[in-house]
Specification:
It is built from 20 helices and no strands. The protein has about 550 residues and is mainly α. α16 packs across α18 and α17 packs antiparallel against α18. The two termini are about 25 Å apart. It is found in: Cell membrane.
Length: about 550
Amino acid sequence: MTDTTSAPRAPAAADPGTLRPPWSVRALVAAGLLVGAVAVTWLTFWWIGLSPVALAAGLGDTARLLSRMWPPDLSGAGDVAWMIAETLLIAVAGTGLAVLASVPLAFIAARTHRGPRWLRPAARMVVVLTRAVPTLAFAILFVRIFGLGPPAGALAVAVHSVGMIAKLLADAVEEADPVPAEAARACGAGEVQVAVSTVLPRVFPALTAIVLYRLDINIRTSAVLGVVGAGGIGVALQTALGSLNYHRAAGIICVIVVLVLLLEVLSVAVRRRTGAGRSSGGRTGTAALPAGRAPYDVGWDRRRVLRVAGTAATGVIFLVSLWFLDPDVNRLSSAWTNLRGVLTGMWPPAFSGELLMAVLESLLMALGAAAVGAACGLVLALLTAVNTTPWRPLSSAVRMLLVLVRGVPDLVYALLFVAALGLGPFAGFLALWISSTALAAKFFADSLEQLDPLPHEALTSVGAGRWQAFAAGIWPQFVPSFTGNGLFVADLALRESIVLGIAGAGGIGYLMQESIATLRYDTTAAIIIAITVVVYAIETLARFARRHLL
């Protein structure tokens, strides 16, 4: 699964006093998005040569590949178990390093920062850059600098995670009650003292929720970092596919899916147990306090003891993960030389027509797959949501299917389609289509179930049919969520399309891997700049659409 800046939310009920854009503006923006989605989808189909005949033939080839992969081969359980452990250690170490870097960066990037004015734009630039470049792209770069193995994977996970953790934590810092901080400043406290003593304790529940969410994403990502030599179970998957040992590859894919699903269940359980992310309104920090407890209560109780013990255990696990990665001292000593060579070779960036066409291909694959995936996901969401499904057992079956589909990383789908269909954007489009459909269906179903049921029930009570009640009672409420979640899926698909080329599935990823392998770092720099600009442009478009529609 892909990582994100933040999970989409259903829009809150409108405040009667809140000013919304005029209906004509909202209708114009909605029509523009619809026309743009249709145009991009048509252009994507033309670009990759997709037709009903080609799609049927491609799915047939994929089905024959899957039949050759059965039954899965799970031999060498000891090696697989160690690779699973290595995958988890990479994710934990990378997430821990990201937290250490993100906390000070978030305080500097927040609008409440009172330090030197030039630091805030610099911090925000770091946040944007690390969030825009995918983890696998960083992994390719760090493998070149630090060599093959888990250290490169852990650093790639850490650098990319900084963008998300720092962004969300900065938002929490800005929302925190400013009164305690102002009181501390009035008493002569410095900015570091203010941050540590008054702000950080209040945003700690939000930080816990962000870290748990990011760790879940990083474990999924770490499962495929081995494809580029950055350690973990992905190494075994790449070896099996490269040697055409499809039974072995199927067994490893099954292990990855089971691992991801188990960790998703564990993550949900931990969030419920710790209360991370719960809020009931109000300023950050106060809402997360237990009922009946004042914000400034002191003393030790059972909850505080468990929190401190959990924090200490987390620190021990992080240190153990760093120790088990066991980086090669000789490689680390030569890393500075490699890093200097990479950085000096990146200037000036070398843009070319081939690079721009590869970026365009990634963009078309992502937006086309997201548009088709949103349409398919809407159908599945209507079958899944409890207030729209025609049959409850069907809802449970579709929901289980979506969980299984989301459990397979996008890069695994790309590797399978490349093995079945050959190199090119067709394989990448199919991989993104599947993942976008499953993700959109989950978001849409969650949003449908959160809608106000009264309009639908009122229409049903006066004799309206199922589709009449849906069109008049559910759909008008659902349009803002559909738009916001659809844009969110498009943003995720764009980030994933960048790395699918590493597996030969079209787009900019292959060109980036090739530029690093051939030491053409000026091309690598141009690719990173192009990726950042495109991702930031899509984020800007999404913010504009939400502001005028929601």
